[in-house]
Structure formats: structure tokens, C-alpha cells
């Protein structure tokens, strides 16, 4: 009888220890990234922005009235809908549905972009921490109106949308 109580008590303690361990592991996934991890992701985002801006500038430099369709196709390949880490987002037509803000961050960031303000946040998306940022875009080059017929001939200071960047934060 005493052995049975001892075994029962041992099993109870074992389940208690396992339960506490699993709880600690599960809560570990909730721990936000450190300042250093976030800074690393921000620096990566800065490099990513510079690379994308260089690519867009090159595209603008090469797009002419004679090759607008190829330019549109080229940009749509760079900003592929399957890549969720960089997106061009706006609300002014003509737009494909996938070019509209898709979550609360993008809705808030786009609203701020339309008045020329950037927006950043550290967020968890699908169990992964991300450094997210938006960069307001204006109708800053004459070539913008080649692809976006609804834009006035530029350059102008009209804010039209945002470039959304998302960098996974490494733990």
C-alpha cells in the first residue's frame, strides 16, 4: 500500500514538472526580441531599402513610353505577390486586390504614408517576430505617370502609397 502511494505521488510530481516545463517552453515563444536583435533587423531593413530603391531607380531610368508594358511586368516580378517581405501598397486605383493593405499594420502604415509619415513596429506574425516598416511613396518621378495613368505628370509631392518591408528577427 505504501509503495502504491509512493508511486502515485511520484507520477503526480512527474506530471507537475512536465506541465511546468511545457508551460515555460510555450511562454518562451512569447518573449519579444531583445534590443540587439531588433537593431540587427532594422539595419537589415535599411540595407534592403537601399537595394530596392536602387532597383526602382534603375527601372525608372530605363522605362520609356515605348517599353512601359515591359517596365510594369519587370516591377511586378520584383514585387512578386508571393514575397510577403516587400510589398508596394496603396489604395488609389488602378490596383490589384493584392496591392491593397492586408492587415492592421499595413492599413495604419498606408494611412500615415498618405500624409508622408513612416511607420515601424516589431510584431509577431504566424509565430515569427518581424521588424516591420513602411516608407511613404510619392509621385516623385515623371516615369510614375507612364505606368500609373491616374497620376498627374510628375514629379509632384502627392503621396500615393507605401513600400512595406518586413524582416524576420533572428533569436
Index terms:
about 170 residues; alpha+beta; Beta-Lactamase; 4-stranded antiparallel β-sheet; elongated
Account of the 3D structure:
With 171 residues, the chain is an alpha+beta fold. The protein has two domains: 1-31; 34-168, Beta-Lactamase (2-Layer Sandwich). The protein contains five helices and four strands. The protein has a four-stranded antiparallel β-sheet with strand order 1-4-3-2. The protein starts with a helix and ends with a strand. The mean pLDDT is 84.
Q: Could you say what the CATH topology of the largest domain is called?
A: Beta-Lactamase
Beta-strand level of the residues, as a percent range? Answer: 15-25%
Into which percent range does the helicity of residues fall? 40-55%
User: Using DSSP, what is the number of strands?
Assistant: 4
Span between N and C termini?
50 Å
Q: Which stretches of 5+ consecutive residues score pLDDT under 50?
A: none
Q: What is the domain tally? A: 2
CATH architecture of the largest domain: 2-Layer Sandwich
Topology as H/E string? Answer: HHHEHEEHE
**What is the molecular shape?**
elongated
* Major sheet: 4 strands, antiparallel
Rg (CA only): 24 Å
Strand order of the largest sheet: 1-4-3-2
- Secondary-structure-based class equals alpha+beta
Mean pLDDT: 84
CATH first level of the largest domain: which class? Alpha Beta
Amino acid at each position: 500500500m505504501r509503495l502504491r502511494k509512493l508511486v502515485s505521488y511520484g507520477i503526480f510530481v512527474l506530471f507537475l514538472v512536465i506541465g511546468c516545463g511545457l508551460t515555460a517552453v510555450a511562454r518562451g515563444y512569447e518573449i519579444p526580441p531583445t534590443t540587439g536583435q531588433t537593431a540587427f533587423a532594422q539595419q537589415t531593413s535599411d540595407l534592403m531599402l537601399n537595394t530596392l530603391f536602387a532597383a526602382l531607380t534603375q527601372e525608372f531610368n530605363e522605362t520609356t513610353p515605348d517599353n512601359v508594358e515591359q517596365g510594369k511586368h519587370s516591377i511586378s516580378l520584383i514585387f512578386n505577390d508571393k514575397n510577403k517581405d516587400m510589398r508596394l501598397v496603396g489604395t488609389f486605383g488602378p490596383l490589384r486586390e493584392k496591392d491593397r493593405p492586408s492587415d492592421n499594420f499595413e492599413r495604419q502604415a498606408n494611412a500615415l504614408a498618405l500624409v508622408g509619415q513612416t511607420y515601424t513596429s516589431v510584431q509577431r506574425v504566424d509565430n515569427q517576430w518581424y521588424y516591420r516598416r513602411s516608407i511613404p511613396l510619392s509621385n516623385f518621378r515623371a516615369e510614375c505617370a507612364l505606368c500609373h495613368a491616374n497620376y498627374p505628370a510628375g514629379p509632384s509631392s502627392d503621396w500615393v502609397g507605401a513600400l512595406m518591408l518586413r524582416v524576420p528577427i533572428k533569436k
